[in-house]
Amino acid sequence: MFIPENKLAVPSFKPEKKEEPALAASAVRIQQGGLTCSVPVKPGSTLLDAALANGCDMKYKCRKGTCGQCAVDVVAGAEFLSARNTAEQKKLGSSAKRLACQSVMSQVK
Ligand code: FES
Questions:
Q1: Which domain of life is it from (predicted)?
Q2: Could you tell me the residue ranges of all domains in the chain?
Q3: I want to staple 97 with a disulfide (CB 3.0 to 4.6 A). Which of 45, 46, 60, 71 is the partner?
Q4: Taking the domain 24-99, which CATH number applies?
């Protein structure tokens, strides 16, 4: 049986395009008691909101910077956090901890 060349269905075997693995996103690594979380940087979000949205089951209560329940140790990525505000200075004194509800995330410029 003759099939004209322009009628042949020739399957295309293009190599499967592999996705490049995404570069590691910027993140802030925090510890609160025995809990350790890596929180992707979400500019404009508080560290608390970003942590909770990322499944970090951390303690918090007031969200106003007064109870101190959200205090965390920042293990890595402190450069993505705002400077301490008055509430943090008042609550934490000279401690190196941060209040997750008061720390606002941003990209490093
Ligand atoms: S939740 Fe109370 S100080 Fe952050």
A1: Bacteria
A2: 24-99
A3: 71
A4: 3.10.20
